[in-house]
Amino acid sequence: MLKMVGDAKRDGRPIKLVVLGLSHMNLARLKDGQPIKFAGEDVGIAGVEVLIFVGETEQSMARELSDLIGPQTDVRIDRKVSDA
User: Fold this and answer.
1) One domain, residues 30 and 65
2) Are residues 10 and 27 in the same domain?
3) Is residue 81 over pLDDT 60?
4) Number of domains forming the structure of the chain
5) CB 14 within 8 Å of CB 7
6) Are residues 43 and 74 in the same domain?
7) Cβ–Cβ < 8 Å for 18, 38
8) Beta-bridge partner residues of 36
9) Phi, psi (5° rounding) for residue 2?
10) What residue numbers bound the domain in which 38 lies?
């Protein structure tokens, strides 16, 4: 996997750009149910844990993550993804 972080601009405003490039081997592993995880420190964004996984639908993936969501978790899910 290619991991890059850099400073960029969007609409003239500075932003932090994170780029993740997945190889065909990475995609095969994801399809086999093997998520990709790495620490943000690996790419210069401390205090962040990155999890990449795949699922059949956005709704099924949201359900898979329900165990990770606790009362202190700030959850922001697009309304198009919600089961409700």
Assistant:
1) no
2) yes
3) yes
4) 2
5) yes
6) no
7) no
8) 52
9) -95, 125
10) 2-53
